[in-house]
Specification:
- The structure is a homodimer.
- By secondary structure, chain A is an alpha+beta fold.
- Chain A folds into 2 domains: 63 residues, Winged helix-like DNA-binding domain superfamily/Winged helix DNA-binding domain (Arc Repressor Mutant, subunit A), CATH 1.10.10; 124 residues, Umud Fragment, subunit A.
- Chain A has 3 helices and 11 strands; from the N terminus they run αααβββββββββββ.
- In chain A, strands 5-6-11-7-8-9-10 form a 7-stranded antiparallel beta sheet, with no helix packed on it. A two-stranded antiparallel sheet of chain A has the order 1-2. Chain A has a two-stranded antiparallel ribbon with strand order 3-4.
- In chain A, helix 1 crosses helix 3 and helix 2 packs across helix 3.
- The first copy, chain A, starts with 8 loop residues before the first helix and ends with a strand.
- The relative contact order of chain A is 0.11.
- At the A-B interface, strand 2, strand 3, strand 4 and strand 11 of A face strand 2, strand 4 and strand 11 of B.
- Chain A binds a DNA duplex through helix 3.
DNA sequence: CAAAGTACTATACAAATGTTTAGTATAGAG
DNA sequence: CTCTATACTAAACATTTGTATAGTACTTTG
């Protein structure tokens, strides 16, 4: 077994045992549970090890509380700073978040990338076509859109046009809203009628090859 | 307060309370702790709510065990499909991953975005300047770079030039390597001498406002 | 060489905790 | 109108659990 810096082999084993409980969504083990797992005949043995882990800064013991071993985050896995955004295929109608049958997977996104949208219904789409090259959004990019954010002029939106999802910019001309493609090839202005805006694009992800 | 599908407001509050403990690395609360937090005068009230959450599939109760409430993963947070990439400021020299004093935070990135680089040393940088507009990389974007990937022609790389990090494209002309800015404003070719390539850009993140 | 740390056993106690039984009250569904 | 679900109070009991005291034995560090 590998060992963690500054810890003895036994202490490493104990710490990994504690972490296993957390990964599984369970409360920390009791000292008797630890003792049983390692074959100790007294809970004091387990208590001593956890005490050593506390002195070395890996855990915190909440005195008196049952299962009172708190794992201090070694910079990983503890702080959940991500959101799982469902990846959707083409969404013919309705709120995309409810179309579970079109769910293709999930994309984990750092909350910092979705500032202010973290409690909204979000979805991710793979960009196809060149309609948004003017805004530096290309085929193969991923976009994360917010279904609950009111669209404003200039926003890149996911719109449903003729049963297909496309990315467009929301534009305003003479007080009326239009959808505009950001590409020299597509210069059409689409009036905002009988058509749905399914979400406002909040972030873009590109993988380089 | 928002509510989770199929749960009452109270049940949503209880579930969020349970999740808070987990986020903090602590064991689940006892029924009396839940009761105290919500002002219930009997632990049975808390117990009933958690029982309802169990019937609806959000938690599992380990009978008899203290703090025996296990949070069942609703497709998120449990499976760790992300990598925490350190965000670095300007890195004057050396392997960026070891320059912990320049660490500004971490960016969680979906492993799918870093295909093949997940075991390498990665770092994230905030893009400043317009030198890569030709490759659709703009000021304010985040790039994640791999310090262990051999650079190839055409790759966008993080290079150290005059003590500053810049993004450039690795180009080849007459068998020799150069660094090239991808902007009409900057057309200089920089010879690949006495200068370090600190990483190859693997993915780009943009936040829209 | 002594002191501190590691690695345990053995026994015991008070407090913490899950659980049970017995109710009350309200709202919504069939 | 009845049944079920929600949303609690009240009191009590058997375990579970953290913790304490008292040891033994071995290893590492100053």
């Amino acid at each position: 077994m590998f060992s963690i810096e500054g810890l003895t082999l036994r202490q490493t084993e104990i710490l990994e045992f504690l972490r296993k409980f957390r990964r599984e969504g369970k409360s920390a083990p009791t000292y008797r549970e630890i003792a049983k797992h390692f074959g100790f005949k007294s809970p004091k043995a387990a208590s001593d090890h956890v005490h050593a882990l506390e002195k070395k800064g890996y855990v915190r013991r909440h005195g008196g509380r049952s299962r009172g071993i708190e794992l201090l985050s070694p910079k990983d896995t503890l702080t959940d700073n991500t959101i799982s955004v469902p990846i959707l295929g083409n969404i013919p109608a309705g709120y995309p978040a409810e179309q579970t049958e079109h769910r293709l997977g999930t994309l984990a996104v750092d909350k910092a990338m979705l500032d202010g949208s973290t409690r909204h219904r979000l979805f991710a789409l793979l960009v196809s076509g060149e309609s948004m090259e003017g805004r530096s959004i290309h085929e193969g990019d991923w976009v994360v859109a917010d279904a609950d954010l009111p669209p404003h002029e200039g926003d890149v939106v996911v719109a449903l046009i003729d049963g297909e999802n496309t990315l467009k910019t929301l534009a305003k001309q003479e007080g009326r809203f239009f959808l505009k493609a950001e590409s020299p090839k597509y210069s059409d202005l689409i009036p905002l009628k009988e058509m749905m805006i399914q979400g406002v694009v909040r972030s873009i992800f590109r993988r380089m090859y």
